[in-house]
């Protein structure tokens, strides 16, 4: 039965977003955001634990009994990217000014509004209709950074203490243009490959006495970038490879340099793994090295493997709530960059739904105030539906 006084206790997600934006939590600074959330959640009956690691601040909050028959989880982050040039902003970047129906500030879109919306929905829900089950909020301060000690630290904490989410919703911005037009059921994998080709330095007038690494690197980059990795899959677009830099650092016009470096970024679907792509690139590098008589070293950083949560009960649950609120059936998307869902997917089924992300990471980042309110209502409906049975 609903609490007749619940309206007075309702958490305003716009006010909470503004309070979070005023916390200068540029990665890896906590900035007061997690302290604010911990205090509010504790007042609502959540057991709150700081899970700080490696200089990164994280918050684990649970309402209900550990090991409950079902536990719904929310995941998000309060850290934000740097401002860029503060003089380019037309508002105070951490001022949370509301103008013409928009709330401005760094992190307003990505993703303090999402955290505020799911925290507000969760607090109202447990006060008004305490569920048969548990809620977990796993909030990190390291999504925009290296992500080594953020959500991974929270998941490690959960494994060590016997905590578990049955399903999880990540509140990242997912809608390209209109509220409700897309949700994420997976993400592409991402890796960055660093190539160094070493030849023999020499005078440009006597190229036969040198071994120029530049033609070798040009050949290798051409082979990689002109190769079609795949044609896409049922839920993923074709994989892409981009050459992002080729550099020798050579200021002289009469010197053939000894080294050339290049960097490649690949966003890949579920036909590949980081290991399989690394093997392919190494094979191509070995061929070019033999052809030009140079040495080629390769190192690879894998930011996350591709993954897919197959359409089913969780995506249906979220899509139903989104459609009820917006009138749109969200596209089941796997586009975009990486998110912390890439870590959560090893723990439990995970999907992502959040606001329109047009201004994230931009100068004058902003979010529509009415959409923050709408997002809270969607999250609340998701909780109502999940715990209804």
What's the helix and strand layout?
Layout: H1 6-9, H2 13-21, H3 33-43, E1 47-50, E2 58-63, E3 71-77, E4 98-99, E5 102-104, H4 108-128, E6 134-140, H5 151-161, E7 167-170, E8 182-184, E9 186-187, E10 189-198, E11 202-203, H6 213-226, E12 240-247, E13 255-256, E14 259-268, H7 274-292, E15 295-304, E16 307-308, H8 313-326, E17 331-333, H9 341-344, E18 350-352, E19 366-368, H10 369-386
Parallel strand pairs: 3-6, 3-7, 7-18, 8-17
Antiparallel strand pairs: 1-2, 2-6, 4-5, 5-19, 9-16, 10-14, 10-15, 11-13, 12-14
Helix pairs in contact: 2-4, 4-10, 6-7, 8-10
Describe what you observe in this structure.
- The structure is a single chain.
- This protein is an alpha+beta fold and 389 residues long.
- It folds into two domains: 6-187 and 306-386, Zn peptidases (Aminopeptidase), CATH 3.40.630.10; 189-304, Alpha-Beta Plaits (2-Layer Sandwich).
- Helices cover 32% and strands 23% of the residues.
- The chain has ten helices and 19 strands.
- The chain has helices spanning 6-9, 13-21, 33-43, 108-128, 151-161, 213-226, 274-292, 313-326, 341-344, 369-386, and strands at residues 47-50, 58-63, 71-77, 98-99, 102-104, 134-140, 167-170, 182-184, 186-187, 189-198, 202-203, 240-247, 255-256, 259-268, 295-304, 307-308, 331-333, 350-352, 366-368.
- The strands form six sheets. Strands 1-2-6-3-7-18 form a six-stranded mixed β-sheet, with helices on both faces.
- A hairpin with a 7-residue loop joins strand 1 and strand 2.
- The longest helix has 21 residues, at 108-128.
- It is elongated and about 80 Å long.
- Mean pLDDT is 96; it is low at 1-8.
